[in-house]
Structures are given as C-alpha cells and as structure tokens.
Amino acid sequence: MRDNFAGFLLERPAGTVLGPIHIDDTTLRDGEQTAGVVFANEEKLRIAKLLDEVGVYQIEAGIPTMGGAEKEAVAAIAAMDLNCSVLAWNRAVVSDVQASLDCGVDAVAISMSASDIHIEHKLRQSREWVLDSVKRAVVFAKDHNVYVSVNAEDASRADMEFLLAFARTAREAGADRIRFCDTLGILDPFNTFMKIKTVIDVVGIDVEMHTHNDFGMATANAIAGIKAGASYVNTTVNGLGERAGNAALEELAMALQYIEGMSLGLRTDKFRELSEYVAAASNRPIPAWKPIVGANLFVYECENRATATMADPTTYEVFPPEAVGLTRRYVLGKYSGVDTLKRKLEEHGLAVSEDEAVALTYRVRSKSVALKRALFDDELIDTYETEIAAVRDELAEAGPAEEDPVEAAARDAVAALSEVADES
Amino acid sequence: MSPEFVRGAGHVARPMLLGDGVYLVDTTLRDGEQTAGVVFANQEKVRIAKLLSEIGVHELEVGSPWLCVEEREAMKEIASLGLRARTRAFCRNTGDIELAAATGVDGVVFSASTSDKHIAAKYGADRAWVLARAAEAAEQARAAGLSLVISAEDASRTGMDFLLTYATAAQALGAERFRFCDSLSVLDPFLSYQRIQTLVGELDIPVEVHCHNDFGMATANSLAGIRAGARFVTVSVGGLGERTGNAALEEVVMALKHLDGIDIGVSTAHFREISEYVARASSRAIPVWKAIVGTNVFAHESGIHADGVIKNPLTYEVFSPDEVGLARQLVVGKHSGSRTIQHKFKEFGIDLSDHEANEILTLARDMSVELKRSLFEKELMYIYQDFARTNEQRMADEKVGVMDEE
Q1: Are residues A223 and A335 in the same domain?
Q2: Is A290 inside a domain boundary?
Q3: Which of B41, B304, B368 sits opposite A38 (nearest CB)?
C-alpha cells in the first residue's frame, strides 16, 4: 500500500488541489440527526440564512418524508430565496422523493447503503434490490428536473467492485453526483485517496465527500478525497453530527485555504458567530480548544509564545484571529513570563524593573499553581500591591548569589530568554 | 511487541530496546499543562503519570524544569515512583538540563526552533547558533548521564535542507531519537508523510512525530508520520495541549489498532476513566461527541442507525463500547423509528404491537420537537402510561357504545 501511495504522489504532487470545491453543509440534516439534538424550526431558518451569508454552495435542509415540522422547515428554507442550492435528504424510495419535491427544493439526495454488511443485516435485501431501488428513485427525481446526489451509505466498507456498479447505476439513471459516505469514520486519508481516485477514474462522476470523525480524521479524510478529485464536500458547523460528528465546515474551509492554498471565497470572519449560534441551538457549547473557532485559540500564556507573538504574530499564527472572528489575548499563569507580566502591569500604569519583573513572575507562577488556573488581571494587581515592597527589599538586601543554586539557574534561564527576546 | 525496559541506577539513562512497534510519548503533563489556563496540582500530575504508565504508555514528558519549584517537585516525585514508563523533561538550554538532572528523570528532550522565522524572531540568531546550542545541550545531557531526544520546533516550516542538517547533527551528537514538530499545524497527512519519509530515509535513529490540531488533523498527521516510518508519536489525553491541542492518545491508539492493524498493547478499556480524570484535573469537560471517549459516540437515535444496531451492532459500530470503557445507548427523540420504541419497551418488560409502537413514536417525536431534546426513559414511560390510559378509556367508551346499540 505504501508503494502504491508513493506512486500516486508522484502522479499528483501533494500540494495539488483540483477544480473548484463546493461546500454542501448538512448541519440541518446530519447535524440534527445527532442523538439528543433538535433544532426549532425558527433556528433552522436562521442557520440556513447564516450559512448562505457565509457563502456555502448548498444546504442539506432536512428529511421531508418525516413530515410535520421537519417538512415545513424544509419548505420554508426552500422558499427563502437563498443564493445557495437547497437539498433534501431521502431514502431511495419514490414517496420520499415526492415529499422533497412537495417542499420545492432544487436538489435531492437519494441515500442507499452500499456495503454488504448493511445490505444483509440492516436492509435484509440483495445487491440487485439495492441497484433497482436507486435507479427507480433517481429516474423519478430526474423526471422532475431536480439536481440528484446519490448517497452511497457505508461506501467505505463496500466491496469496491459493487461500489463501482452502484456509482455506474446512479450515473446511468441520471444522477449528477455520488456522495461517498465514510459512515463509520473508518478510513484514513491514504485509503480515502485511493478509493475516491478509483471511483472517479473508473466511473467518471462528480464525487462528494461525507466523512465522520470517529477516529478524529473527518477533516483530513475530506481533504484527502478532494486531493483525489472530489469536487463536493459535506460539512457541518462545529462538526456536529452522528456520534463523533462530521467534517467541520470551519476546519475544512480554513485547511483548504491555509494548507492547500485554495480559497473558497467564504466569509470566514463570520465563522465564530455561526459556530456560536449552532452551539446554542444544539445545546452543545463550543469547547475552548475547538479548532478554528475555540475561544482559547489566540490566548497566549506560555512565555516563549507570548513574547514572540507580541513582536510578530506570524511566529505562532497561521492566520490572524480576525480571519475567523476571534481576538488575541494574553494571560498570566504558571507558564507565563516577564513580558506578559510587564505588558499587563503597563496596561494598568505600573512600571517595574527587569529584576522586579522576574521576581514577580515567580510569585505569579506559584499563585497560579496554588489556584490551579491562570490569574485574572485584578489578581495580578493584588500580587503586585502586596508583594512589590518585599520584592524590592529582597533585591536591595540580598544578591542573586545567595539564592538556592537551583533557583538561581532557573532565574538565569528566564533572564537569558528575555534578553534574547529584547535583542530581537 | 511491548518494549523491554531496563531500569538503570541514578542518572544512568535506561535504554529503550526497540522492537518493531510504535511507541507512545505522552505529553499531557507538559504540552497538555502548557495549554493557556490549565494547571495541574502536583498530586494530579503524579496520579496522571501513574495512570498513563499503568495502561502501558511507553514514555512520559513530565514537565518543564525551569518553570518553578513546584514543577520540579512534581517531576522529582514522578521520577522516584519507578514507573514502567520512562520519564523525560522538556528543556530549552543547558541550564534547563542541569535542573532536569536534579529531578532524577530518565532523560531530556532538548527543543530548539529550526524555522528561519523562529530563529530570527525568537533567538535573534542564525542557524549556526541553533546547531551550537544543540551541541552544548548534548554535551550537558551526556555529562549528566541523561537520555537525550533532540526536537525541532516549527520543523514543518523549516526548509528541508536545514532540517536535515539539524537532524543529522542530532544523530551525530548522540541523540537517541529526533522529534519533528508540526508546531503550527501547517501540514496535511500527505505533506506529513513526505517530510517524515525523507527524515526516516536520512537518519539511523528513530523519528518521533509531534502534531497539533489547529485544522483538526493532528491524529491523521500523526498516523501519516507513522505510515512513513516514524516509530514514536507524541500524544496527550483528550488531545489536551497548546491552542487546539495535540494528537489524542485514545484516537491514535484506536486508529492504529482498528484502521492500521497495529496493536501496541495499551489497555484501552481505561481510556474513558483516564480521560475523565484528566478532564477534571484540567477543568475541561469531555465533549459528549469527543471521538473514542465521548458519551455520545455509542448513542444511537436516528431510526435507521438504531434499527441497524439492534439487528447487528457492526452495522454502525467499528468496535465494542466496552473496549474503551463506554456503554451503548439507544436514545429516543425526533429521529427515532418504531423499532427503537419496541426495543426500548422490551427492556422495560413491555411488548408493543407495531401499531402501538407507531402511536407512541408519534407522541415521542412530537414531545422531542417541543422540548428540543431527546427524551429520558421516564418520559417515555409517562407517554406509555398516558397512551395506555387513553386506550383503556376509548375501549371502555366503545364498549359502552356497543352496549347502547344493543
């Protein structure tokens, strides 16, 4: 496998991304399908509007055949006159497709399992039945002039020969694209690349990536598929979706732009706002460390990084916080150094000498260890006010030579680093 | 495949005897704690070190010795435990290595930035200066009898020519392995593969991959590095680390096991437990959707998925939940199907007909939409009780009607 992959790389340099990429966001469908998550219809409309403003190509709005509020929401979104395409999800059943057509969407996804394990154990049917069902549903949909995506569920576990037959059946019935679903998130980027390349080379149909994050690789696998030639990608805001979720819209868009050098022209500066709204509507707060939109991403505590970014943010930032609607902040804690301390004190109109800053930094670190967290600015001021006299006395009375030798070595290390920073 | 460890005395480095395997270097206690806002109490550090060693992690990066007295005390205590896992301190210069030696750890990782941008901005120096610092550090580590790893910070933004110069220098200086850091996550798995493959081809010593998750690809990039020949991989529990974090221990281990067929002998059944402990100690709750250890990853609500899982768990599960210390749940909500309802009530000892299940499903879905969440089992029982009462009432009314007609 390693050798094969090396061959592909020679053929297609690793930095290459082909053709324009279309984002098909499924926050409203696979996102809501997450156990425990339910959006109110009003929230669905608002999410659709935000996604449209961000500039996605298509929205997967829901499952009309569920009826009731769900069907109403899809119809309402289709009637919003958005710039993006509105797609509805269906099983490969004519009545499902009819329900979608009733809603006035311009695109339908027709879903059917492609793996034997699903065909035998879940559907309890044959491969022929699968192909017939797909064909019937696609022909019906195309007769009504809508864009058709055929979703190959569990495609990553499907027998490749059958998957090719499945894709060929879809194409011949008139489908516009095939959605390759790594339903269980079991692929790695290398397997993904090879499977997608095979489908495209053999069947010659547009491919959409639908990846899951069960092993933490949804985004990487989506990008691998794109590198292999897929031109559509299914995302969700915050990666919301079944189990560990789907490929996150914000991760995918930023990775394409900053790693692969391909801008999708999205309003990425609205990502944090969009993520916050979906987080609130889905009752799933954004972890502070969430890639791209986490509140912690541009917060600097570690001395090394804080000092460097104060001089030049690009030493530790690939894109500026404004690119995704965040802001840069510095915090004082166990790992912070003299530069952050001096900067914070200066903001409060307090000046200290280099030696005083070093001594105060140690006190801040100890306090942070005792409190088990970073300090608030007020706590720094308290530390300054209560400790500065003692610090000055110590520095006046005793020289560093009388310190504990281990402590002195640490002190020197801190001083050496700040000298280096001052030089630069 | 599990490596043999030879316990040395005092500061004599314990050599690691390499088999064919992949080895884990956990940095929860160093890069993990370096996360802005996260501080472990010393007793938490000790507990985390014990837990990681017990589940079979091979090496622990235990701390940054220059930080403060408390940090060095924690390192000293962990080093004195005689854990199966080797212990290593993170160092930037000879002063740090001196401090590390006093804590009794098995080794040090000397880290210097190698990208021109970092060399200029952080050190105000040049490439030769970096090489000289590495040489000093190696000398200091050798004198102290410490095992040495040499690490390239921002390696992914370093020109390959200088990276190879630095890496081969590290090897010549006696480093036991070389660490490649994608400090800013600027790589995708294909680019990672290429870089690591080149390094592995040039070096005789093993290569370690250290990835960050800024674009959500830390695990994929780590696995790509391993595929390209890296033998060591930096991980942290729950992916705790600077900004978006590092590659998550549990993701890397399970992906190696289930996607690449490499079982490195780590006791995965404790993953949920250890993740919970680190989550508490770092005050960062595990998101319910966290890959591998989130409580939601074995929760099935949608009718299609739940029906599949009821018939055969393999339809929607790759490994069994108990493999990582979790449990499967069937959740009833807006997307549920009638099979789930029947299955749920069977658990409660109630057999529902298809008709009854459909009626209850409609009521449950409506309730879920109204409440904007899935339902508790109690609520499901309330629905059933109301449904049964209405039914009895209707039957009674019908009976009365029939009698009236008579």
Answers
A1: no
A2: no
A3: B368
**Do A363 and A412 reside in the same domain of the chain?**
yes
Residue whose C-alpha is closest to residue A250's, from A210, A219, A209, A280: A219
Q: What pLDDT sits at residue A302? A: 87
CATH no., domain B4-281: 3.20.20.70
**Is B242 at the interface with chain A, CB within 8 A?**
yes
Looking at residue A304, what is its pLDDT?
A: 84
- Strand B4-5 and strand A329-330: the pairing is unpaired
Model confidence at A424, pLDDT cuts 50, 70, 90, reads very low
Q: Given its phi and psi angles, is residue A32 left (phi above 0), alpha (psi -120 to 50 degrees) or beta?
A: alpha
B positions 108-127 inside 8 Å of A (CB): 117-118, 120-125
Query: How much is the pTM?
Result: 0.89
How far, in Å, CA of B59 to CA of A59, rounded? Answer: 46
pLDDT at A16: 46
Burial of B395 (0-12, 13-18, 19+ CB in 10 A): exposed
Binned at pLDDT 50, 70 and 90, residue A397 comes out as confident
With cut-offs at 50, 70 and 90, classify the pLDDT of residue B401.
low
Using a CB-CB cut-off of 8 Å, the residues of chain A touching B214 are: 291-292, 297, 318
For residues A135 and A229, membership in a common domain is answered with: yes
Cα dihedral across residues A409, A413, A418, A420: positive or negative? positive
Among B190, B219, B311, B339, pick the best mutation site for testing chain A contact (most A Cβ within 10 A): B190
Strand partners, B109: B90, B149
A259 and A401 together in one domain: no
Q: Which residues of B touch A187 (CB under 8 A)?
A: 259
- Which one of B120, B255, B316 has the shortest CB-CB distance to A184? B316
In a domain, residue A289? The reply is: no
Contact B188 A187 (CB under 8 A): no
C-alpha distances out from residue A224 to A210, A228, B83, Å = 12, 6, 40
| Pick from A311, A313, A342, A345: nearest CA to A328 | A313
Q: Are B259 and B55 in contact (CB under 8 A)?
A: no
Place of tokens 């996360």: B35
pLDDT at B391: 85
Q: Span A152-168, mean pLDDT?
A: 98
CB–CB contact A283 B373 (8 Å): yes
d(Cα A74, Cα A144) in Å, to the nearest integer?
Answer: 18
Domain count, chain A: 2
Radius of gyration for chain A, computed over Cα atoms and rounded to the nearest angstrom: 27
| Residue A327 phi, psi dihedral angles, 5° rounding | -135, 155
At A26, phi and psi to the nearest 5?
Answer: -115, 25
> Which residue of chain A comes nearest to B216, CA vs CA?
A291
What pLDDT score does A201 carry?
Answer: 95
Alpha-carbon Rg for chain B in angstroms: 28
User: In B86-126, where does DSSP find H-type helix?
Assistant: 94-103, 116-118
In the structure encoding, which two tokens stand for residue A256, read together? 């394409």
Q: Which of A122, A215, A334 sits opposite B259 (nearest CB)?
A: A215
Residue A216 in contact with partner chain B when CB distance is under 8 A: yes
Collapsing DSSP to helix, strand or coil, B295 comes out as coil
Is residue A293 a contact partner of residue A270, using CB atoms and an 8 Å limit? no
Give the domain extent around A365: 298-424
State the pLDDT at residue B402: 57
The verdict on A239 and A302 lying in the same domain is no
Residue of B nearest to A157 (CA): B315
A100 plus A241 within the same structural domain: yes
Q: How far is CA A376 from the centre of its chain?
A: 30
Residue A293 lies in a domain: no
Instruction: Give the domain CATH number at A140.
Output: 3.20.20.70
Q: Can you tell me the distance from the alpha carbon of B85 to that of B2, in angstroms, rounded to the nearest whole number?
A: 12
Contact between A69 and B369 using a beta-carbon 8 Å cutoff: yes
CA distance B293 to B253: 12
